[in-house]
Amino acid sequence: MNPVKNQSYSNYLLTSAIFGFLAVAIGAFGAHALKGIVGPERMPIFETGNRYHFYHTIVSLLVVILAIQKGMNRYLKLSYFAFIIGILLFSFSLYTLAISGIKIFGAITPFGGASFLLGWIFLGLGTFQSFEEP
């Protein structure tokens, strides 16, 4: 395999690995330290952010695996970045809202949700394009 091609995939994999590490670390913080800090009404907000963080980190890894197997196309690339942006906007806005209680952070969350939706659409298009006959 082409080393330049492998290097570009390693950057995607590294980014996904960092996001996976953060999902575990933030989840552990929520499970052990946060319960004594925030009230029970805000814990589900935090947990929702963490759950979507995990889901979309895993799917970002699957996008890279598909790209390694079939080649990266523009839709797979858009899908990958939409999932990463979605994590930043959706999950991190919910983390911040849950910890701070500042409701304006909840206004950011739908933009992350829209990014997740676009990511799934792009993944479908990218998968279709990857498996087309040459």
Automatic annotation (TrEMBL):
UniProtKB keywords: Membrane, Transmembrane, Transmembrane helix
GO CC, any one term: plasma membrane
Protein topology in the membrane: Multi-pass membrane protein
Chain segments annotated as coiled-coil in the UniProt record: none
Segments traversing the membrane: 12-32, 52-68, 80-98, 104-128
Domain of life of the native organism: Bacteria
Protein location: Membrane
Keyword Acetylation among record annotations: no
Family label: Belongs to the UPF0382 family.
Protein name in UniProt: DUF423 domain-containing protein
UniProt organism field: Leptospira ognonensis
